[in-house]
Amino acid sequence: MEDPSVNNSREIDEEALITEDEFSQQDQRYFDGRRMHKVPQSMRFKKHEEDYYAPKMVSFGPYNHGLPKLRMVEEFKPIVLTMFVSRSGKDREFFYNMILEVIDQVRNCYVGVSRDVYNDGALAEMMLLDACFAIYLMKIKLGDTKMYFHFRQHFGMAAWSFVFLDMGLLENQIPLWVIELSINLIYGNKEESMLLWNCLSSYIFGKCRLTRIPGEDKERPLHFLDACHRLLVTEWDNAGKKLVQPVSKCQWFLAGKKIVQPVSKCQWFLAGKKIVQPVSKCQWFLAWPWKKESPHEFGIFNRQFRSVTELKAKGIYFKPSSNCLKDVKFKSYKLFGQIQLPIWFFSDHSKQFFLNMIAYEASPESDVDFPTICYINFLKSLIVKPEDVKELREKKILFSSLDGDEQIVQVIKDIDTCGIDLPPIFNEVKMRIEEHCSNKAKTWIAELFHTYFRNPWTFIALLAATFLLCLTFLQTYYTINKP
Length: 483
Description:
Radius of gyration: 28 Å
Number of helices: 21
Helix content: 40-55%
Distance between the termini: 92 Å
Order of helices and strands: HHHHHHHHHHHHEEHHEEEEHHHEHHHH
Number of domains: 3
Strand content: under 5%
């Protein structure tokens, strides 16, 4: 499949960007320097028969705007805008002018969208239509039956899943503050201003329970996918309070029990005994521990790991943790071990969702760490056959709407991390699991229980064999010592 940007008749001029000096300091209340990049060409088509980064029904933003296959929804957007304008008590010109006032900040959120591509009026019109249509979809997602039947009347039931999933594509985004601004212009009250966060909570967790996005007081999410990412990499308690704060991109603390000083992007500190000098972006300190006295350090670079069934045979059991992708824990006890894994629901759209999350984490200027990439790599090492999936399903860790465990295995294999194999977030967990499996006493006891006590029949067979062995011993003893 061709790159959708190739089909777009408007070419993007990378050099015709607006600089921050072109608008006053007062007008920079929204733009903070971050931009929305396109998916690299090498990621888009690597091992994929279809383009999982291209929208199927609706475009948001300039990167996919004007594609012929999206024309049906594009012609429907003015109807939605008219609906919201009439309910607000304001005229269409009022909405348009409010967006036009901040259009330079909108333009700077994209790469290569110059005035030669879209003039201020065209870009403002696009943002207004896209923001209102996004609000329209959010209202439907949260149970507005009137709007749902309105949508169904025009597009049918089958279109709903595709049109809402298009909101989660990396190249199909508009600034989140544009949606917030439009919500406030339409409704103008606090209750409706929670529409965005309620929709995000429902989209990620299946129910509305969060009232804010982590870190929004310091740096608001740039777009819808950014907000989803923040929710998935932050651990929440039942009261909706943040438990684990996301760290900046590529700050990996490989210092045993001590936490080293945070560093800049992609500076890796493999602190065995000394802290090496930081270098430029993504240069690895492969201080290979060739000495015999440092096998633990060599384990940092070992990519192989044990599957779920192998770990279970070693006396390690599994338990659900939370919805946070970074919430992976391991505890070693005297007779067994326990791994806590994030809960996830696999569907037909999981592959597309994860691929776009990975593309977001790996995109330029993305100031986040790599939890999705590390989670998928960890899942790939744990799940290699359907029996692994079955074990995690029975422990209420994995859920699925797919037909059979084989499909889940295939989906996980098909999620391409593009060869990104960073020092993982779960490296310490894997080290402690390996230490547990290397303990002969614990693994022997575990294998004994796994072999003979995994069900009543094997236990009865063991008792019967032991009883017969005792009878044979007694018979032999009395035969030899018979008077």
